[in-house]
Amino acid sequence: MDRRDLDEIERFLTSVGRPTLFVYYGLDPSADAAATDEAVRKRRTWAQGQQSNPKFKSEALFLIKSNSLLKRVFVDALDDYRVHVRDDTQHRKMDVLGLFIRGTLASRELTPQSEAAILHQGRQLELSEAAVARRIEELLAETESTRVGFETADLSSETMAIDHYAILGVATDAGAPTIEETYRTRYRWARNLKDLKRSAEVLEALDEAWRILSDPARRVMYDERRLKMLEMTDEVEKRSAMLMGLLGGPTDALTGEAPLPGAPLPLGAPAPAAPMPLPPPVHEVGLRSATAPQGTRLPLAIGRPDSPPAAPPPAEMPSIKLAPRIDAPSGGRPAPPTITGRTIGITAGPQAVATLGPRLAVDGPEVLTLQVGGRPLSRAWTVRNAGQGKMPGRVVTDREWLQIDQPRLDPVAPSQTVTVHIVPQQVPWGRTAGTVTVVTDHGERRTVTVHVHRRSWLPLVGGVVALGFLGVAAVAAFLLLWPTPAAPTELALAVDPVADRVFVDGAPAGSGRALTIADPRDGKPFQLKVEADGFAPQEELVTLRPGERTTRTITLALVDDMTWAPPAEAARVDAPAPVRTALETAAAANLGACFAGVPEAEATATYTAWVTPDGQVRRVDVTDPSFPLAAAEPCIRRVFRGLRLPIFEGDHASVELRLAVPVTK
Fold this sequence. Notes:
Number of helices: 18
Structural class: alpha+beta
Radius of gyration: 34 Å
Distance between the termini: 65 Å
Oligomer: single chain
């Protein structure tokens, strides 16, 4: 499955607000290829009737033009796409868990209570305990943190009831490389099971075995307690004898088949006449805890190890389930005592604290229109991390004539420049378009559309040679008759306040206080729409003659009178220093125009601004002014409502400023 096909589908899903094709088509993730093919066909039939509907036009055009792409990904490679969705979901969950672990390790120490809180967060995200444990170890090494308050590795009695060596099919004296190789081989097989529930059960069992046997401290503790448990009870012998009676020989706990050469046989089982090779793993596995009630399955989840690409699944075989536990008869040997161990309460430790992660922001127009000749062109955008933490990602294009200087983002840079080069020799003649997309590893994306017009200049050299006897007359006629290129049609906009979004016939055309729209519609009317958060959008029908250049001033009206009051249950927080600094700087720079009629050189007043966590001013109170407030107040409200401040955590904050603003004459 091509990565570029997946990127194109993800851009479409982002535009329609759906996470996966299963959700978009209303199908269960376990649907077969026939169901997905039927869904694609019906949706394309719907799209053919929506091409002229402005609300669904872009969606319908994609479904019609990309029908073969959708069938290639969602029908022909359905199993690969299902694995991609599952892995992508796991990646996102692990990213969220990583942010939580980093916050917990802020003091460079990991306590038992902190680890319990991390494990609880992993359960909430439906991640396996082994996967969470691996991520904890990775971040402990990365942040150079240490464990505090751990006496030794702890193992529960439920863990002791499982033979992890039999789960992996290795001998009890197997080395770490052998355990890891066997674990990864069986993990790749389990990932390709079509039954996702059974796949999750097998993966959980493998993860738990890997978590115990790959850690030297846990393995020593497990081996010691396992030996004591075998000495205290013959429970394992009973199960082995019963299983051998059903199958006629020793079996592997995971596959239900003969164990690997060198693997330990159940106690009391006769040795085979010759070494038995490892058969293909079975499709179904039933695992039951020895300490849980009969019929109770262990809680299982899907893990995600760092393993090579999955191999095709082997042939499926019948399911093997362990026999039920047989209690000792009256007067016989007493039942084994419960093996107690130190357990961690999942409710202990600090509560999860919401952490502000990275947030992608791209400074620059979303739509760019250019004319190219024979020289290469370059354009640059600034990519910012408007949140916190690392922001790895990549920059991709969908056209060969768009080339990127830096295809990977610097994850630690708060701001970086992405430069795109346009190679005119590879641009087709006429008008064409391409996209430049910035995609972060945590799922955000921003797309810039580049419209390019390459004109065809065809010299009349052949005619000049054929009519060489005309000489200067032919050259003069050529110069006189050659048409002069028409001047471009441009619409310049001056927007008050700063426009968050500008649309031409429903298509994004840019943003900002001042912008120029080139060649909107030569001689044809078009619908212009300007939007800004907190202000009423403005629409108008505009018609420009070919070659006309004009400027229009658009003033947006407030949607409310800025008398917002916080809810009774909301708690006010102290405004962070970046919010206060940005508010003071922006207000002082923009309020001067509100005091045009004031005779003094400066206008002084106290401003109390109420700011919500999204960085918008919802209310402003003016007290102790040195100027007539009634005339200036509407302008003051517009200025504060148009500010865009840094985001912060909490319900709301109030900032009080005493400003002396120079009067603009």
